[in-house]
Prior knowledge:
The structure holds 2 protein chains of 2 kinds. Chain A is an all-alpha fold. Chain A has helices at 2-14, 16-35, 42-74, 77-81, 88-116, 125-148, 156-173, 179-186, 191-202, 213-234. Chain A contains 10 helices and no strands. Chain B contains 10 helices and 13 strands. In chain B, a hairpin with a 2-residue loop joins β11 and β12 (265-270). Chain B is elongated, with a radius of gyration of 23 Å.
Amino acid sequence: MLQLSLVELRLLLRRRITAFSVVVVPVGLAALVLFGERPGSTAEWGRLLSTHVALLMMMSVFLVSVTVFTSRRQSRVLKRLRTTELSDAAVLGGVLLPVVAVGLAQTVAFLVFCIATGAPAPGDPAAVVAGVLLSVAVATAAGVATACLSRSVEATQVTGTPVLLAAVASTFLTSSNDPAVAALGLAMPIAGPADLVARGWSAGATVADVPVVPLDLASTVLWLAVAGFVFHRAFRWEPRA
Amino acid sequence: MHAGTTAEIRWPGTVCGMNAIEVTGLTHVYGDVVAVDDVGFTVAEGEVFALLGTNGAGKTTTLEVVEGFLRPAEGTVRVLGRDPRTERAALAPSMGVLPQESGLIGELTVAETLSLWQRLSSRKDSPAELMDRLALAHRADVQAERLSGGERRRLDVALAVWGRPRLVVLDEMTAGLDPESRQRVWALVEDLAATGTTVLMTTHYLEEAEALADRVAIMHAGRVRVAGTLSAVLSSRPARITATLPPGFPALPAVSGTVDLDGRALAVETEALQDDLHALLVWADRHGLRLDGLNATQASLEEVFLELASARMGAA
């Protein structure tokens, strides 16, 4: 699987548009943090950085995994790889692992940059790490599920948009002072893991509008389950007609 | 034609006389459409077996069940003694597969593609030698998506035969190839077969089956209609004698076949070619006649194929 992943990683970085976005998205977000309004408290830093992590995941991991997975299926590469000695799981993992690795690398680089330029260190690093890893999991699962429903790479612009918009909306909704609106935001894709990042950063600092951890996990499990259901029902090794 | 026998097999652990593939009562359904209906055949170790048939006959579906990618609705399939559906991982090191559709990673060059396969396979082979044999060496640094259709297919074949697997399944291996490329691929398959590799192939090119296959099966409408050695399949259909008779020819001799006389154009379809040809020649000699354009031929695979195809059209 690693051999396939290395080839896919090379191809990922060989594509100009992808290579461009790999650099531009985290740099752009870092610039927003550096030159934008600086948060006043650790909790506000946590909220800002978790929002950016969520955007990074959706832009890098979700969108790229939708495109790569759809492209590889439609061009029958997945089916051809099944004729090798790789297991089915290794074929899927080999294609997706580079996307995940790049997304994680971008996130780590972004967060390290932010801390280096004045952001407070996270109060509960373990919670932040858990939040980031769950973010990757949800973004990847949502990407694969969306690819399962996409008939072509072009169609992913339609099928991926609702998920992307919902994720973006969640970053606004979870910041609401209205608990009901914040809870609604938490029900959106990737909101749960992002909230975990925010809570981890503030390390339990009291923030009235931040919902509790069980809700974060419930939201995460919900979206992983939805993605798993779609994958189970709609996954095809061959192009969708 | 390759005349490989089980005695020539060089694969370690091969049991003489063992079937590499056993298909019994195979049925596969897509929705309401029965794609494969009660198909059965065996392929012996070291044999080259060709599945022929019109489009939609069920050849590719049959192959995909054998490859372990489709679960049959009914019937059993054993490949190298294993269930391909549940034991695909165990079979993969012994099996090379050429799908009907390419599935190459377009952004990889020819050399990179072979290099990837080298790393994904436990079988050993030489990318340089394969590129050379399939006339791809001069295209080593060209991305697969920039290759011509024939070059892509040759690269496909190279991946399928990588490391000389014990069993190769080839679905329309020479589709779209020019005659020279086709000869190269044929030579490669003949070479594999000579060293004991079992080959299960489908093709639309009847001359390809005639050139490579030890046995053939002709499918249509999801069923195997005719199967056996080429000579057995061909002898199951009447031979044909044709000639142009001279003006004012006398009464024809008695023959066992069916006589079709259109003016002076004579056509006899017979299952006793030697006897009927002898009767005609004696008759002509006795009357001092010259039989212009005399031709006596066994039924060709193409005729058998077309007969089945036309029967299908008639049924439709």
